[in-house]
Amino acid sequence: MPDTVALIDYGAGNLRSAARALERAGAKVVLTDDPAVIAAAARIVLPGVGAFAQCINQLRERTGIEAALNEAVNQRGVPFLGICVGMQLLASEGHEHGVHAGLGWLPGIVSRLAPSDPTLKIPHMGWNHVTPVNDAPVPAGDAYFVHSYAFAPHDVADIQAVSDHGGQFAAIVKRGHITGVQFHPEKSQAYGLAFLQNWLNP
Fold first, then answer.
1. For residue 10, what are the contacts with CB-CB under 8 A and spacing of at least 6?
2. Distance from CA of residue 198 to its chain's centroid?
3. What are the strands of the beta sheet with 100-101, ordered from one edge?
4. Marked catalytic residue, from 100, 124, 147, 184
5. What is the pLDDT of residue 14?
6. Catalytic site residue 184?
7. What residues form DSSP beta bridges with 158?
8. pLDDT tens sequence across 160-174
9. What's the mean pLDDT in 9-19?
10. Helices 15-24, 189-200: crossing angle, 10 deg rounding
11. Distance of CA 98 to CAs 19, 38, 85, Å?
């Protein structure tokens, strides 16, 4: 399946909306939890809605998915995109409902947002500006966020863009062929569509 984007179904994602957004961006999408399909895909998208602990546990409860992801992404270099908690799962560990080991592909910690302004609400929900950093080749624009926790990579060079909610947090991370976004491209209208098109056609 050289032209297929595997959208991982592990019971923890906004799958239908994500699939429609990827299709609008030009992708051929297969919704799957089949390790063989994941291992053969040309690109992989891992969505995530909910808590870090719930998502990583559900992913690991699906036999063969983590091994297939490691084979495809870490051994074959398949382009990977994590969305929202799917991005956070790239971390070494998440500190939501205890401390839980992540995939560890981008060393770092996922911790609760702590706005400097006490009037700012958690979860951070709604539109916010995405600002490129580190001379990253990503556009600025407004994206839609829904999250209470944020991923802080150990290596700041892994951060491509930030947003601010009483303090900066990573909005886009990237290392090589591995990319993660804290916002929801499928809810981010023109900016989300442009981001997905750029990811599909670098």
1. 33, 55, 58, 59, 61, 62, 65
2. 15
3. 100-101, 93-94, 108-112, 149-153
4. 184
5. 77
6. yes
7. none
8. 999 999 999 999 999
9. 88
10. 70
11. 31, 29, 16
**Burial environment of residue 126 by CB neighbours within 10 A (0 to 12, 13 to 18, 19 or more):** exposed
Catalytic residue among 55, 84, 96, 147: 84
Q: What's the mean pLDDT when you consider all of the chain?
A: 94
Tell me which residue range forms the domain holding 64: 4-200
Alpha-helical segments (H) within 52-133 = 52-61, 65-69, 85-88
Query: 50 vs 129, which has greater pLDDT?
Result: 129
Query: Could you report the per-residue pLDDT of 176-200, keeping only the tens digit for each?
Result: 999 999 999 999 999 999 999 999 9
Instruction: Return all residues near 84 (Cβ < 8 A) that are at least 6 apart.
Output: 47, 48, 49, 146, 147, 181, 182, 183, 184
Q: Is the pTM of this model over 0.90?
A: yes
CATH code of the domain containing 27: 3.40.50.880
Q: Partners of 161 in the beta sheet?
A: 132, 172
| Closest CA relative to residue 68, chosen from 108, 13, 10, 143 | 10
DSSP 196: H
How far is Cα 189 from Cα 15, in angstroms, rounded to an integer? 16
Domain count for the chain, please give it.
1
Among 96, 124, 147, 186, the active-site one is 186
Residue that wins the pLDDT comparison between 13 and 134: 134
List all residues 6 or more positions away from 2 whose beta carbon is below 8 Å from its beta carbon.
Answer: 42
